[in-house]
Amino acid sequence: MAKILFKNAKLRGQAESKDIxxxxxxxxxxxxxxxxxxxxxxxxxxxxxxxxxxIPPYVEPHIHLDYVYTxxxxxxxxxxxxxxxxxxxxxxxxxxxxxxxxxxxxxIALKKQITTGIQHIRTHVDVTDKKLTALKSMLELxxxxxxxxxxxxxxxxxxxxxxxxxGDELVEEALKMGADVVGAIPHFEYTRxxxxxSVKKAIELALKYDKLIDIHCDETDDEQSRFLEVLAxxxxxxxIGEKVTASHTCAMHSYNNAYTYKLFKLLKESKxxxxxxxxxxxxxxxxxxxxxxxxxITRVKEMVEAGLNxxxxxxxxxxxxxxxxxxxxxNILDSGIHICQMMSFEEINNSLxxxxxxxxxxxxxxxxxxxxxGNKANFIVLNAKNEFEAIRERVGVLYxxxxxxxxxxxxxxxxxxxxxxxx
Length: 423
Ligand code: 17E
Ligand code: FE2
Known about the structure:
eight-stranded parallel β-sheet, single chain, binds 5-methylcytosine, seven-stranded mixed β-sheet, alpha/beta, 15 strands, globular
């Protein structure tokens, strides 16, 4: 039996640090002052976590790994900064995708994500491509990297299920090939009717193939875009809300309060999950406004207060929609709590939920997620003693532990200085 003892782990919500004993990759004890020798008097390998904050791994619930590092591709430059130009530029420049090239780009992004403490990723893959090239790349990557990261793949029809002829069939084909989640983009369909039809089709396919659902829903400043109510109502009637996610929901920023009040009752009862992409949508939204300019981010603060499950995501790393992005969720969290005005001490202390447990619920992995006896020993150690310090300093990770093994260890930055004050 392979045993390893992690001493002095500062867990969230606990005043004192604890020791975590891992046996064969599974957490077997979380107690005070566990012994470093086993019942046969053999030494157990020990890693001292020095009372640093130890939390479950970060969850990236919404990224487009097939698009990463394409911002500079000829023809891909988005000069207006709008969602619609992004879709147009991608449509014009995506014809030359090659399976290995997509994999190489995605691997660079994955490495960055993993080395900032992410162990669970849900990626969209554009399936409005008759060859399904990117999907094939991502299915291979998911298998190749499964020891170091858990991936879910969304069959996402970027150019529409109906606006792109045969888009609905390509989504179905992708599910048969192994995609885990059904996607859609109702606000991009040509009419309200086709948008609704795409939402209903996504639900029909999810039920038929027993898949999860994650829809790019109302990613627009158009306050008339109300596909969220369609998604929530049908999920409620089918009783599948916990398996369903509405991504973006930017139009909710612009809904009137009377309508939103009524909508919240449905959202609560439907048990839907929500993903906000703060850096991405602060960049893409408000582009048709003069001043004052809307922020365009969904109502995260009010949703959290209402008890809805919301998480944050990066969305893009250097693609036709968004030129920057590092994959580091600590940056996203920092931007998100500013943009959404979630800056009370309590909100700051709780905000790690937005990139950990809330993401895990969205991915439907929460049963086996978290630092609990019986769970896989998957956790990260932050370079901070508590939540507030972690957020204020936007700290990095010191360790990522997966199945009880050190996936990587990071030495905090060393400053070589000739000045006593800095040293
Ligand atoms: N595609 C889309 O429809 N919306 C986005 N925010 C990105 C891609 C990044
Ligand atoms: Fe997206």
